[in-house]
Design goal:
It is built from 8 helices and 9 strands. The model has no long low-confidence stretch (mean pLDDT 90). By secondary structure, it is of the alpha/beta class. The relative contact order is 0.15. The chain has a single domain (4-252), classed as 3-Layer(aba) Sandwich (UDP-N-acetylmuramoyl-L-alanine:D-glutamate ligase), CATH 3.40.1190.20. 35% of the residues lie in helices and 22% in strands.
């Protein structure tokens, strides 16, 4: 039986509330009209406001999940979220690069849960930079980018990381420019995405944004268009209600193509 082309895979944690992780990614893929799969990297015990712990999925079990999917589906984009450590991340990305050489890899570097649980305390920087060389895009917020780069200024931190791969610096946590995102490529600020409509905070909004970017890339959009479409989508998601759990609407999935 022939394989199915141009699919997207999320390698992420399972959040029982459905607000973040694999469930949020799959909802986003569907709303953006792409075929998406999920590979578990962690089992979390949480809801939208409380995080009680997690069980990590080891690299070999992640690779087994990917392996059986690759027998049936061909992935043009892979999005990686919550993952145990830099060694597991490196192993997974190396496998994807070898077996799916045309696959664009997006890493959403989740350092801390929205409820405050700290997942990572340190990444060895040279090892991190080597991993980034094999990524197409990373999507840190202001706290995550300073953690990764070891630089207090978020834009300067993004520019350092962008020497190794493209960086979308998310502004949701920014105190100076809330909601303003920066796309940084090859150490240069290439595009600034201003904030749009009035929004309400949502659990898992970073997951949704990176999944929407992945969806747009899978549909053939260039990176700037993918980021623009994804920002429009996530702002619709943020404004969907006044709770911490947003709803996904295919009508919000745009539309702009280049």
């Amino acid at each position: 039986m022939a394989g199915i082309n141009n699919c997207v895979v999320s390698i992420a944690g399972f959040d029982p509330s459905g607000g973040a992780g694999i469930l949020a990614d799959i909802k986003t893929f569907e709303a953006n009209r792409v075929l998406g799969m999920g590979v578990l990297s962690a089992l979390t015990f949480q809801n939208d406001i409380l995080f009680e712990g997690l069980t990590w999925i080891e690299a070999d079990e992640i690779l087994k999940q990917i392996s059986v999917l690759k027998k049936r589906f061909e992935f043009s984009v892979a999005k990686i979220g919550l993952i145990k450590n830099i060694e597991v991340l490196e192993t997974v990305i190396s496998d994807l690069k070898q077996s799916l050489p045309g696959c664009q890899i997006i890493w959403d570097p989740i350092v801390k849960a929205s409820a405050g649980f700290q997942f990572h305390k340190h990444f060895e920087r040279e090892q991190l930079f080597a991993v980034l060389e094999n990524c197409f895009l990373i999507t840190p917020n202001t706290e995550e980018v300073t953690f990764l780069a070891g630089i207090d200024n978020p834009v300067e931190a993004a520019q350092l990381l962008a020497k190794h791969c493209s960086v979308l610096l998310k502004g949701g946590h920014s105190k100076e420019e809330p909601g303003v995102d920066y796309l940084v490529r090859q150490n240069q600020i290439e595009k600034i995405f201003p904030t749009g409509k009035v929004v309400f905070p949502k659990h898992g909004s970073g997951c949704v944004l990176s999944a929407a970017i992945a969806s747009n890339l899978a549909k053939g959009n260039d990176l700037i268009t993918a980021c623009l479409n994804a920002k429009i989508y996530v702002e619709q998601f943020l404004s969907s209600n006044k709770t911490l759990l947003g709803t996904h609407d295919a009508q919000a999935a745009i539309h702009i193509t280049r």
